[in-house]
Amino acid sequence: MQHNRSSSVLFKRLPLAMLVSLAFASTSQAQSLVDMYEMAKSYDAGYQSAKSQYAANLAKADQGKAALLPTIGLSGGATRSDRSQDPRTYFDPVAKTANSNYNYTTQTAGINATQPLYRPANLATYQQSQKALEIAQAAMSQAEQDLIVRTTQAYFEVLAAQQSLTFVQAQKAAVAEQLASAKRNFEVGTSTITDTREAQARYDLVIAQEIAADNDLRVKKVALELLVGKAGAAPLSLSAQAKLPPVAGSNAEEWIAQGEQSHPAIQQARVNLEIAKLETTKAEAGHKPTVDFTLGYNAQKNLNGTSVAALSTNNQITIASAGITANMPLFAGFATQNRIRETLALEDKARSDLENAQRQVAQATRTAYLGLQSGLSQVKALEAAEASSQAALDANKLGYQVGVRINIDVLNSQSQLYQTKRDLAKARYDVLLGQLKLRQASGTLKAEDLQSINALLQK
Predict the structure, then answer these.
(1) Which of 88, 248, 316, 452 is the most exposed place for a label (fewest CB within 10 A)?
(2) Residue 225: exposed, middle, or buried by beta-carbon count in 10 A (0-12, 13-18, 19+)?
């Protein structure tokens, strides 16, 4: 019994940094951010849906080639006919008979091919299919960037919740020690019952905070496990010696300029404009001629006769053909003119969509850049506040011991210190996530960017 009480006292007196280390001591089974991302790539339903859509878009893009390639068809058939004619209206001078009722069978088979030579609409359709391939690639890139950010955010939310719980538990231990001290002082008559009740109230409040922090950690872990498809996910914590990287680039305009060239949303809007222009080209092709090259080989076999006369022997005819077919449209009820008007209006819409995408990317990039700068400044301010809060707590503890401070002053200082530590931990994670969100906003985020964050985690 004495051994257990000594261990408990020793645990309460451990430095806070060591408590945090103990909380994340089981790193042998923990996963790094890169590991979590790789698991999410193979499990996340949203990303798998994007991959399937990308594969479908690739196949659809290849369909555009068909309009430029030849079409070949094989045909065949057999027809049974029953010929019957009134003998008063027909007399065969050769057969010297008026009986013209008989059955006959006609068999046909053939192969025909058509190669477009000049079809402007088909060429525009093929060009559109290749542009659609660029849209598919941009959409896939956007899905990858979204998965990177979602994985990192879920990863850091678990770490922040873990640290928040650890800090609350450390605060509970400190308040419990302060409560025990207040009770001892009241028993010997050196303090009032007010100190005990204040400490008890603060202890009860910390218990409620611990319950809430523990539940928040469970919820955050469930969200991460649902994303990566692994039960018992345990992310590596951020190293205590980790130095946050500064904001890359001298101003937001540099990031915006990158976004103009590489952001998937702008790329898609730009390609959509090109596709709209090709749609106008297709509409204008309604006024132009079409030219096709045709080849054919067809055979017809008549059994027991034809529609003209009965035959005593089978008759077979074969026809081989080659030719060029041209077609010139003259009038289609103003359909072509109205179609051109429609496509020109859609061009204007696509142009406006491109401008809107550029504005949204610029705004998101500028917001992310300023947010990251603010986050770094906040981290520095909270680091200074942490040191000041620790000094204030030490001073209040000393003042309480010599009688110039009361118990509530110590409790308030403790609460302020641990709140500052929680805010600082969250701010550090927000900065690292903000680095990725800035790259996402400018369209330059890649999976390799996770390596620099991975290097800041505990080994």
Answers:
(1) 88
(2) middle
**Spacing of C-alpha 456 from chain mean position:** 25
The pTM score is: 0.81
Looking at the domain covering 2-69+140-287+359-454, what would its CATH class be? Answer: mainly alpha
What distance in Å separates the CA atoms of residue 430 and residue 443, rounded to the nearest whole number?
19
DSSP 10-58: HHHTS-HHHHHHHHT---TT-B-HHHHHHHHHHH-HHHHHHHHHHHHHH
| Furthest CA-CA distance within the chain | 147
Interatomic CA distance for residues 341 and 338, integer angstroms: 5
- Rounded CA gap, 427 and 157, in Å? 11
CA distances from 229 to 45, 223, 233 (A): 10, 10, 9
Distance CA 206, CA 241 (A): 29
Taking residues 382-402, report their average pLDDT: 90
Question: What does each C-alpha distance from 116 to 5, 94, 120, 121 come to in angstroms?
Answer: 92, 49, 10, 11
φ/ψ of residue 76, rounded to 5: -165, 155
3-state class percentages of the chain: helix first, strand second, coil last, to nearest 5? 65, 15, 20
Provide the CB-side half-sphere exposure for 84 (13 A, CA): 1
pLDDT at 156 exceeding the cut of 70: yes
How far is Cα 365 from Cα 439, in angstroms, rounded to an integer?
8
Q: In whole numbers, what is the pLDDT of the chain averaged over residues?
A: 86
**Helix (H) or strand (E) run with residue 326 in it:** strand 315-327
* Residue at 312: amino acid letter: S
Helix (H) or strand (E) holding 33: helix 33-43
pLDDT one-digit tens code per residue, 71-126: 999 999 988 877 776 655 555 555 444 456 777 788 899 999 999 999 999 999 99
Residue 373 in contact with residue 255, Cβ under 8 Å? no
What does the pLDDT look like over 123-142, one tens digit per residue? Answer: 999 999 999 999 999 999 99
pLDDT tens for each residue of 168-218: 999 899 889 888 888 887 888 777 788 888 889 989 999 999 999 999 999
Query: Could you tell me which residues are beta bridge partners of residue 104?
Result: 81
Closest CA to 73 of 292, 290, 298: 298
pLDDT tens digits for range 328-352: 999 888 999 999 999 999 999 999 9
Q: Where are the domains of the chain?
A: 2-69+140-287+359-454
pLDDT in tens, 435-456: 999 999 999 999 999 999 999 9
Q: How far apart (Å, rounded) are the C-alpha atoms in residues 66 and 289?
A: 20
Strands 102-118 and 290-303: antiparallel
